[in-house]
């Protein structure tokens, strides 16, 4: 009898443990997603309405500025708390996709042209049309048309532009002075760039004139569009085999082949070449501003200019902008909208610009951004908007961008000609595009 | 006797009790294995027959299409070759080095506990952090290794991006980080070997070398076998070193990408879970074949006392 009792009790403990484990398992998705939600549910029933919003971003450079904006927002909206979560670019999308699959997306998060199609077409994002309509402070007319349309899928606005960015030519003034070369300006063409790179390169390998890495947005895309080439046509066909594209790539890769630029394939390594004084010129986007300003060596020695024009006078700078989106299944759509509404309002956009977080997309806010920084001549980033080119994208951008990289790298190591590499890239890109 | 005859018909209370406690004690492991290993394996196998939609929606059954694609995908075969080459280099080299170190550390040498600790440190460091440090050592422009090469007058090597060198660089990290684990297991094995054997062999006139080959190796063979099986499986799944060091844009990508890296890219970067699952099933099959072969071969060289 006694034995039977122990037996039964052990069994029941086991069953309980097992059930508890199962319970945890099924709950864990919502728990990950809404750790804060669980807390708020309790406080909601208890003391009042403290709502915590998860706000997910990928650029740690912007965190402190956004934190400040969030603090101001929290003061104006007691009861809403913003938790900023930062993940690096690569991990951000992996985590976001896992969150979307498991039903635990952050409440508010950044969107990008590369990924918007997947999220919008699968209805992972909250439809903002009605909310924009009824809002007093969000005026969509004030945002550039090209940016708005990135986040508009089949007539529904899924995200509101947050900022935009262009690519500039960063140069080391000290090295230019040493080599007695005049600083780059808006009269520069490809020939000037080439001559300067040549004069700035030292024979002993201690200094290269320029950095032309295997990088699309902050690299050869700019040259392709300056030369009248394209990466993707309006009919969604690869432009890598366009003769103009190949010509631009040849000019770009040539810097590496002639030893005027180090070979570089890593993403993070590019900046270190600038900051260690290995290269005299490099192409970097406006979003690097905070990091570049904080770096003492760069603040002392560097400045930025517009990108040179092609020899025919063709100008271009790759232009892109992020959007703020809300999860389709957020527990707090109204509070989340309030936050996005604030970020998209004239006030929020101006604050973002003043704090130097990024170039606000709102009409007229860009001037505040220019004034936020006196280390560099950052007005050039705004000047380039006139002829800026939206970063090429389609439904599976992330896939064909990688595939193209895999084919192009051989040109930089001189294992194949640029033309061969470009044609290979076009072939794999078209293969990937055909499956869209 | 009495009990025994009854148990033929019906288990006694005592036996039921024993069975219960037996199951009770292995339950945590079994439940863990089922939830964390068995179910995911079955799900992966299931998924490999689908073309997966984004966010786990809209999966379409496509039969063996993923496998057909797999067999025609040159990159998968390159990744298989890379993975096998990586394993083929890491295992013999790391085991030989660890064996020497373990035997030396088993002697009464000065500060041996300190050495043991030092050798084990790579094991407790996170692979991602370890790779970051190695990446700096390997850096072409500012790395310590190239600084030494310069100093020796040997010219710089592009450790990371040269397709012919990159896998070697990764193998070096792999060996470096696995040695500690091997050494600790081998030390445990070495201490099991009775001292009498060595004393007896000395009387018979054996030198250190023949002691090593005729006593140490045979008596250590069960440990060596265990280490070989587990580290081969571990090496076949190499991912973090390569992921952290070699970018998709790198010219060395094709020569270093491993099956798990390819699986990761397809499943998580390109959103093709089904195809990624098929790649992992291929890896599972390869590992199983290798392990079965090892189990068969052990009869030839492993001595269980």
From TrEMBL, chain A:
InterPro entries according to UniProt: Bact_solute-bd_prot1, SBP
Keywords: Signal
Organism, as annotated: Evansella tamaricis
PANTHER family: ARABINOSE-BINDING PROTEIN-RELATED, DIACETYLCHITOBIOSE BINDING PROTEIN DASA
Short name of one Pfam family: SBP_bac_1
Region entry Disordered, spans: 26-49
Lineage: Bacteria, Bacillati, Bacillota, Bacilli, Bacillales
The protein's name in its UniProt record: Sugar ABC transporter substrate-binding protein
Keyword Iron appears in the UniProt entry: no
Signal peptide: 1-23
Automatic annotation (TrEMBL), chain B:
Keywords: Cell membrane, Membrane, Transmembrane, Transmembrane helix, Transport
Localisation: Cell membrane
Alphabetized PROSITE patterns for the sequence: ABC_TM1
Keyword check for Transmembrane helix: yes
InterPro entries on file: ABC_transporter_permease, MetI-like
Record field: transmembrane: 20-42, 84-105, 117-137, 165-188, 275-295
CDD domains xrefs: TM_PBP2
Membrane topology: Multi-pass membrane protein
Domain ABC transmembrane type-1: start-end pairs: 80-294
Family, per entry: Belongs to the binding-protein-dependent transport system permease family.
Name of the protein this chain belongs to: Sugar ABC transporter permease
Organism field: Evansella tamaricis
């Amino acid at each position: 009898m006694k034995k039977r009792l122990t037996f039964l009790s052990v069994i029941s403990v086991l069953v309980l443990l097992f059930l508890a484990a199962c319970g945890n398992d099924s709950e864990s998705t919502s728990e990950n997603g809404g750790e804060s939600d669980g807390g708020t549910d309790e406080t909601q029933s208890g003391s009042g309405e403290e709502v915590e919003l998860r706000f997910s971003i990928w650029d740690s450079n912007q965190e402190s500025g956004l934190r400040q904006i969030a603090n101001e927002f929290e003061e104006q909206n007691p009861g809403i708390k913003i938790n900023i979560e930062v993940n690096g670019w690569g991990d951000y999308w992996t985590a976001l996709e896992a969150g979307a699959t498991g039903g635990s997306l952050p409440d508010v998060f950044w969107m990008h042209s590369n990924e918007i199609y997947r999220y919008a077409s699968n209805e992972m994002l909250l439809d903002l049309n009605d909310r924009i309509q009824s809002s007093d402070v969000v005026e969509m007319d004030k945002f550039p048309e090209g940016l708005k349309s990135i986040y508009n899928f089949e007539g529904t606005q899924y995200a509101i532009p947050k900022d935009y960015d262009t690519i500039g030519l960063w140069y080391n003034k000290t090295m230019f002075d040493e080599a007695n070369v005049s600083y780059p300006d808006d009269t520069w063409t490809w020939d000037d760039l080439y001559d300067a790179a040549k004069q700035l390169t030292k024979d002993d390998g201690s200094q290269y004139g320029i950095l032309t890495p295997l990088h699309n947005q902050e690299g050869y895309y700019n040259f392709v569009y300056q030369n009248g080439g394209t990466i993707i046509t309006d009919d969604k066909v690869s432009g890598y085999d366009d003769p103009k594209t190949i010509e631009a790539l040849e000019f770009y890769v040539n810097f590496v082949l002639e030893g005027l630029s180090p070979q570089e394939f890593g993403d993070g390594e590019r900046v270190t070449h600038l900051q260690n004084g290995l290269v005299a010129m490099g192409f970097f986007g406006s979003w690097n501003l905070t990091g570049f300003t904080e770096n003492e060596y760069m603040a002392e020695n560097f400045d930025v200019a517009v990108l040179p024009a092609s020899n025919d006078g063709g100008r271009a700078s790759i232009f892109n902008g992020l959007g703020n989106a809300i999860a389709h299944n957020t527990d707090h759509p109204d509070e989340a909208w309030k936050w996005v509404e604030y970020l998209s309002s004239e006030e929020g956009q101006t604050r973002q610009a003043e704090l130097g977080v990024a170039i606000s997309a709102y009409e007229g806010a860009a001037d505040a951004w220019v004034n936020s920084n006196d280390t560099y001549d950052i007005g050039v980033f705004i000047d380039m908007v006139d002829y800026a080119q939206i970063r090429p994208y389609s439904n599976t951008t992330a896939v064909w961008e990688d595939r193209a990289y895999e084919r192009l790298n051989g040109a930089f190591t001189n294992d194949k000609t640029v033309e061969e590499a470009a044609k290979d890239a076009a072939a794999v890109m078209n293969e990937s595009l055909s499956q869209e | 006797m009495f009990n025994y005859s009854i148990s033929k018909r019906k288990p006694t209370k005592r036996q039921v009790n024993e069975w219960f406690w037996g199951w009770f004690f292995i339950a945590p492991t079994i439940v863990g294995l089922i939830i964390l290993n068995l179910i995911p394996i079955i799900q992966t196998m299931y998924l490999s027959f689908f073309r997966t939609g984004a966010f786990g929606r809209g999966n379409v059954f496509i039969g063996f299409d993923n496998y057909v694609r797999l067999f025609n995908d040159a990159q998968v075969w390159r990744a298989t070759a890379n993975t096998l080459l990586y394993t083929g280099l890491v295992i013999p080299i790391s085991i030989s080095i660890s064996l020497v170190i373990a035997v030396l550390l088993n002697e009464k040498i000065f500060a041996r506990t300190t050495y043991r600790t030092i050798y084990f440190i790579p094991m407790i460091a996170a692979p991602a952090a370890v790779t970051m440090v190695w990446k700096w050592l390997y850096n072409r422009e500012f790395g310590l290794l190239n600084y030494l090469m310069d100093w020796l007058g040997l010219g710089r090597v592009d450790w990371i991006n040269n397709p012919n060198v990159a896998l070697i660089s990764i193998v070096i990290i792999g060996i470096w980080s696995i040695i500690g684990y091997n050494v600790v297991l081998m030390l445990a094995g070495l201490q099991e070997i009775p001292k009498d054997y060595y004393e007896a062999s000395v009387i018979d006139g054996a030198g250190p070398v023949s002691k090593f080959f005729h006593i140490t190796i045979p008596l250590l063979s069960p440990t060596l076998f265990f280490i070989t099986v587990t580290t081969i499986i571990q090496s076949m799944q190499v991912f973090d070193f390569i992921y952290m060091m070699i970018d998709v844009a790198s010219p060395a990508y094709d020569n270093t990408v491993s099956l798990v890296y390819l699986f990761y890219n397809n499943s998580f970067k390109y959103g093709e879970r089904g195809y990624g699952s098929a790649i992992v099933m291929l890896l599972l099959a390869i590992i199983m074949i290798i392990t079965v072969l090892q189990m068969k071969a052990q009869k030839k060289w492993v001595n269980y006392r």
